[in-house]
Amino acid sequence: MHVAVVGAGSLGSLLGGLLAREHRVTLVGRDPHVSAIREHGLRVTGVVNLTISPDADTTAPARCDLALVTTKAFDTAGAAATLADTDAGCVVSLQNGLGNETVLRDRLDCPVLAGTCTYGARRSDPGVVACTGEGTVTVGDPDGGPSEWADRVADAFTAADIDATASDEMPLLVWQKLAVNVGINATTALARTENGALLDGPASSVAAAAARETATVARSEGVDLADETATDAVERVARNTRANRSSMLQDIDARRRTEVDAIVGPVADHAEPTPVAATLAGLLRAWEAERGLR
Ligand SMILES: NC(=O)C1=CN([C@@H]2O[C@H](COP(=O)(O)OP(=O)(O)OC[C@H]3O[C@@H](n4cnc5c(N)ncnc54)[C@H](OP(=O)(O)O)[C@@H]3O)[C@@H](O)[C@H]2O)C=CC1
Ligand SMILES: CC(C)(CO)C(=O)C(=O)O
To answer: What range(s) does the Ketopantoate reductase C-terminal domain occupy (predicted)?
Structure first.
């Protein structure tokens, strides 16, 4: 398969590097990362160690079998613009937050799948990405039900030794992942802790309460996510990625805009009472406003 990865930052570089063990991969990103990969290859460090030489470019290829979108949620429309002239068989969003597939579907002609990914990744120097936790990838039709493309994509990941499955329950899994991200990303971003601090530290009850609120909102939207399923998912991911600084904490560390609106917003701004998520969102938005990031 020829796989294009639009958004070669932390997660995109890691997954692109792992996929390049089996497939032709084009990492679409920014300089100096792209130039460093062209010159020296991509170095993956941490839990996985390898140096590999995928193609790298600042524009998308003319054709590919599969395009993975791994930009931040607020850049999804930009990713769609980057892919506008690409003849892609299928596009998969592996981003966190709600609404990315809708943005892609509205702008692109090919099938669009939803995906969830629990790998932890951190891009450090140009040409280098650390795998801070091995996880799983799940893909499927955003509306639920079977999808031949999802089967093909999961097979392609599996062939590259990535634990991947196709699911016909994506609405449930996307909300479950949202509970993980509201719980882990927002809490670690504000507490400035690694994910593992939520296993038994003082902020673990905050993460669990935020996950329960996400489950409440999911159920009010017709998705049958149990409180315990949401809190168990937070604990499992925090355990598997205990050394990771969540993607939202990485944004805070780098004084960058966060994904608060796509991740915490759907829960915090919902008509259901969600005091914990509203507090987390309010604090993150205040931090962004103070720095002119919103
Ligand atoms: N990091 C992690 O451990 C995990 C992240 N995620 C999710 O994955 C998504 C990506 O996160 P992460 O990898 O941390 O984010 P990063 O900011 O590290 O990577 C995104 C990259 O995409 C680039 N980019 C933005 N728009 C375009 C475009 N149109 N064409 C090419 N490149 C573009 C950005 O460049 P620039 O900044 O210069 O605009 C940036 O380098 C998020 O939704 C996150 O929540 C999910 C699981 C784990
Ligand atoms: C899986 C997890 C929580 C890994 O940190 C993540 O999705 C993120 O950081 O955005």
So the answer is: 174-286
